[in-house]
């Protein structure tokens, strides 16, 4: 069983690396990639579905577990096995009212990076949703930024705020830190008009 597991992981690494290379994308890791093993992964800018596919390929290449919360109807459907293999965590309506604790309990079961898009939509928004912050605080895991620069075809991963740091910061200070990161790295989203670099 262990041999099959490692073969599966190695296969995903090969596939992820091949697909990114085929599409002309490269990875830029900030700091220790181990932080990607267990974290809330804040993906921004979020302007197109391509970001999720590219992120999956990147995590496959790195051999890291990546998950996303979706309606349990998708994990229970005939194609549910595929959805779960791509990192889908099914959640029913009764759990949605307590999503923060649901996520914290999932982190107690295993290590993974949980994808959160605080913009909540691919359209232009003024404010980010605070869910990522509350999830990270309750689970006491790092908040890691993930960004795709569609101009240079670069995926940036690894910049993070450890729990010990952001737990002493205000929410506004955290957002200031993230805005400075996006400015410093000149991130170019796929759909420019859908990105608000002055998010609140």
Automatic annotation (TrEMBL):
Keywords: Acyltransferase, Transferase. Residues 40-151 form the Phospholipid/glycerol acyltransferase domain. Pathway: Lipid metabolism. This is Phospholipid/glycerol acyltransferase domain-containing protein. It comes from the Bacteria. GO terms for biological process: phosphatidic acid biosynthetic process. It comes from Bergeyella zoohelcum ATCC 43767. The lineage of its organism: Bacteria, Pseudomonadati, Bacteroidota, Flavobacteriia, Flavobacteriales. GO terms for molecular function: 1-acylglycerol-3-phosphate O-acyltransferase activity.
């Amino acid at each position: 069983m262990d041999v099959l597991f490692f073969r599966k992981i190695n296969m995903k690494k090969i596939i992820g690396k091949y697909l990114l290379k085929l599409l002309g994308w490269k990875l830029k890791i900030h700091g220790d990639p181990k932080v990607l093993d267990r974290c809330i992964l804040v993906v921004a800018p979020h302007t197109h579905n391509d970001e999720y596919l590219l992120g999956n390929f990147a995590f496959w290449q790195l051999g890291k577990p990546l998950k996303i919360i979706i309606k349990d109807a998708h994990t229970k459907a005939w194609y549910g096995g595929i959805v779960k293999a791509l990192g889908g965590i099914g959640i029913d309506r009764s759990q949605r009212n307590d999503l923060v604790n649901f996520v914290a309990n999932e982190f107690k079961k295993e290590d993974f990076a949980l994808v959160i898009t605080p913009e909540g939509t691919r359209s232009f928004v003024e404010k980010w949703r605070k869910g990522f912050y509350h999830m990270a605080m309750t689970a006491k895991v790092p908040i890691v930024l993930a960004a795709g620069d569609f101009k240079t075809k670069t995926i940036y991963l690894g910049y993070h705020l450890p729990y010990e740091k952001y737990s002493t910061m205000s929410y506004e200070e955290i957002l200031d830190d993230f805005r400075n990161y996006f400015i410093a790295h000149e991130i170019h989203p796929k759909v420019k008009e859908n990105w608000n670099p002055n998010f609140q």
